[in-house]
Amino acid sequence: MTNFKAILASHANQVENALIELLNDHTLEYETTRPEKLMLAMRHSSLDGGKRLRPFLVMESARLFGIEPAQSVWAGCALELIHCYSLAHDDLPAMDDDDLRRGRPTTHIAYGEDTAILAGDALLTLAFDVLARDAVHINPAIRIELVRLYARNAGLGGMVGGQMLDLEAEKKPHINEQEILTLQAMKTGALIRCACETGAVLGGASKDQREALLHFGAAVGQAFQLADDILDETATAEAMGKQTGKDADRGKGTLVSLYGLEAAQTRANELLEEAIAALQPFGDDASVLIDAARFTVERES
Amino acid sequence: MTNFKAILASHANQVENALIELLNDHTLEYETTRPEKLMLAMRHSSLDGGKRLRPFLVMESARLFGIEPAQSVWAGCALELIHCYSLAHDDLPAMDDDDLRRGRPTTHIAYGEDTAILAGDALLTLAFDVLARDAVHINPAIRIELVRLYARNAGLGGMVGGQMLDLEAEKKPHINEQEILTLQAMKTGALIRCACETGAVLGGASKDQREALLHFGAAVGQAFQLADDILDETATAEAMGKQTGKDADRGKGTLVSLYGLEAAQTRANELLEEAIAALQPFGDDASVLIDAARFTVERES
Questions:
Q1: CB-CB: which of A114, A128, A143 is closest to B94?
Q2: What predicted TM-score, i.e. pTM, was given to this entire model?
Q3: Chain A closest CA to B172's CA: distance in Å?
């Protein structure tokens, strides 16, 4: 294995610093004031959190084309802001009604439902503010392509649509394999694919290279979700920093409930092989991304 | 008066058709499916609604520079989508808890709170998808400038920040004039200013022209809000299509409660004069915009 964990931690640290810079109290042009409670809730929703897998995938896929992490971290941050807003909204009482996330109170528990809704709205909006900045890429055509990509992957036909399908699925007596795959490809898969494609866009990849990264992202996304569902059944709440076993309690259909644990693990490994194969055109340069794919399947939290 | 009302209605019709096109059931690239319930809620939140004042301001300010409404309608739609998402979220039980909007049930009453949250999220995201499209402007540098503008005016230092200040203000025993002005400039003023500035950006305006339109937008925004507060005290629920007198019932500080009705009306007229003066550099070309400013002050609903 490469020094993957060190790179993951280093990128996460860069992302954290960039997010701290974005969410400080200094007003920018067009801002009279940054309301204190809103800023606290936005920081609560986005700082000090998670493995930063999506920005990592942005930064490592961009590095295949010689783009330095110091630059790609901004597009990575924009994607992470979208991910964080979605968590703040998904945790709301009217949605998944979760009190705990990453071992801490969720945003609405800490700051109230109204503020959590607004903090999510503001994080999503900030993501596009970030994408509009020169720091993302000097070429406006590339920045606007990322806006298009992020909006489509995060929106009605992507992440938000997937969350809608998920809420609907909970109310159904039965959900079949194809429905689960579509739902998951949208709800969690879209942003992971988008992360990998971002590297291709930032790096001016060829059509084939972009396809390869999209293929990789799709396989990793599916494997990541399978691993999540497996962990939801097998891991402790302590290890995960959030409630586990919730899906089963809700009678929520997952591929684990459909395939069984063992077959789900086998399928996750197949997807891992698929992800690795997709990166063959990049040779040894892709070794960190390959380790990342391995990590998503083999992680214990 | 120019044939202002006819132009307002014609633009509103173009906006409606563009929104219908954006919110149909046909999937685009990157979309596997558009979840039915989400689409219904998004249409409910955005179609058949309101005067479309913000797109109107986009379209008429762009026309000062020879940009046809058939083109500027797309940037106008993007802004309207942001406005509509904010209404769906502001109406939620955790926020203003409104059951009625434009004489119809609010989105969460019609489709449930979870779907209303997601519909709002998806409308906001779609706004940026629209801004990324060639139809907005052939030059990507102009499109990305609009992304930056919309994100800053809609986000933590703009509309969302203003809504946060508004929620905070309701809990305070007293709010002073400057606090009300800041809150309103952010909550409602920002998108109105943004609409006028959009025309300048689409049209490649000079710095002075852009400043003039920003000045106009700021004055119209303030006048619009004053008129709203006056109507909240004087109009019937029937005329407004929503509950009135709610601000007073909540003990919410508005400029009307601070100045009194008569002085508020005088101030609105002063702002109208300021708005008209700002457009002097454009001569007769600005007559429709001037009528629009007059309308925002003199409207009865």
A1: A114
A2: 0.95
A3: 14
